[in-house]
Amino acid sequence: MESFDQAWELICAFCKERITEVAYNTWFSRLKPVSLNFEEGLAVIEAPNDFHRQTLLRCYSDLLSEAFQNVFGANINFTLRVQEEILPAAKTEPMPQTDGDDLTFESFVVGSSNRFAHAAAQAVAAKPAVLYNPLFIYGGPGLGKTHLLNAVSKEFMKNFPGKTVVYIKGEDFANEVIEGIARGTMPHVRERYRTADLLLMDDVQFIAGKISTQEEFFHTFDALHEAKKQIILTSDRPPKEIATLEDRLKSRFESGLLADIQPPDFETRAAIVSRKAESLSFEIPPAVCEYIANKLKNNIRQLEGAVKKLRAFNLLDEKPINITTAQAAISDIINNSQPAPVTVDKIIEEVARTYGNVTPEDILSKKRNANISMARQVSMYIVREITDLSMVEIGKTFGGRDHSTVVYATSQIEQRVKTDSRTRDIINDIIKNIRDQ
């Protein structure tokens, strides 16, 4: 057999014949073959996350072992790893970077839709914790919030060398708190965040509804604010619209400056296309700039993606840069920018994070504690609401439960949604967070 990829296809085919299509698509289709060492007798498979890995080991380890034995005989064992265990250790950068772009204030295209947020970000980079603290920037995806965080970080480090900048996504902060509590490492977590001179949190909405995470961030926020350290937060909505965010956090977020970013107007969109082309060292005719700006109206990433695609067409296929090639580039971007299918494990992970004292493994288990049963019912309800799975398929995905169990669970949550605004807000936030991931 020439490669592990070919062997992996046989292993997957073996498994697919022995489980339901729903179970296969949920738990097996996202696995990736990594390496195969015949001398050590070990195959490495990548799982998308630790929850996915643990579920596979608990529910399907015997099936995978049987599949490997069927393909290789008794000489090969397998191990499941997540990406960070596979890649070599690397220095963690303080800020996310996108395709090598220079995300600075100078490269940020300013227009009427973002001028206020841009000016506020410049102000806090020059005079941290003096003018606006916290600075809360909100707006839809792809409008430049992360670009501004990068710009502030770079300007701050230039203005105040030696100071500490910490960047974290809301979802990652929640995961760190959960892991810190589980492993008893919360003092180290607190030390990292509460000694920062500049704290940047992207997508803070992901901490909403998570009791332990909100408690921790409340004290972190207060410690930094009292020490006159600058805090900048971003979200897809203003604090008052994050339904399950604690009122004490809403009041703190609103105590500084709220700055929104709206979708760019036509002139700004055209300028973004032109600026991106310039940064990639090629020129787009004005008519083509205008065409792209007219067609892609709500997302800066799509505008920049169209320019990159045009450049690829021009360099690789020697196609001219005109309306026809722009149409092809936009078509490709629109097709590729459709939201990825929501998976059951993503739903279960978000429900577990929201309920805090429940793990994904608990939700899939047979445990009947009140809090676990509630999280399980909410998970089933959300799976029914935002996926195409039938009641029977949902039951099989949740540990082989009968479809009548799913019917009961979803009807229970339906009633709570109608009568309990708190439950309704939690579920709406969970669904929004899942779709934003």
Characterise this structure.
This protein is an alpha/beta fold. The chain folds into 4 domains: 4-86, GMP Synthetase, Chain A, domain 3; 115-261, P-loop containing nucleotide triphosphate hydrolases (Rossmann fold, 3-Layer(aba) Sandwich), CATH 3.40.50; 266-336, Helicase, Ruva Protein, domain 3 (Orthogonal Bundle); 344-436, Orthogonal Bundle (Chromosomal Replication Initiator Protein Dnaa, Chain: A), CATH 1.10.1750. Helix content is 57%, strand content 10%. Strands 5-6-7-4-8 form a 5-stranded parallel sheet, with helices on both faces. It has a 3-stranded mixed sheet with strand order 1-2-3. Helix 11 packs across helix 12. It is globular. It starts with a helix and ends with a helix.
| Pattern of helices and strands | HHEEHEHHEHEHHEHEHEHHHHHHHHHH
Tell the overall outline.
globular
Task: Give the % helix.
Answer: 55-70%
Q: What strand order characterises the main sheet?
A: 5-6-7-4-8
User: Total domains, how many?
Assistant: 4
Which range does the strand content fall in? 5-15%
Radius of gyration, taken over Cα atoms and rounded to an integer in Å: 24 Å
Any guess at the CATH architecture of the largest domain? Answer: 3-Layer(aba) Sandwich
Mean pLDDT: 85
Question: How do the helices and strands line up, and which of them pair or pack?
Answer:
Layout: H1 4-16, H2 21-27, E1 32-37, E2 42-47, H3 50-72, E3 77-82, H4 83-86, H5 115-126, E4 135-139, H6 145-159, E5 165-169, H7 170-183, H8 186-194, E6 198-202, H9 211-226, E7 230-235, H10 247-253, E8 257-261, H11 266-279, H12 286-295, H13 300-316, H14 323-336, H15 344-355, H16 360-364, H17 370-386, H18 391-397, H19 403-419, H20 421-436
Parallel strand pairs: 2-3, 4-7, 4-8, 5-6, 6-7
Antiparallel strand pairs: 1-2
Helix pairs in contact: 1-3, 5-6, 7-8, 7-9, 11-12, 11-13, 12-14, 13-14, 15-17, 15-20, 17-19, 18-19, 19-20
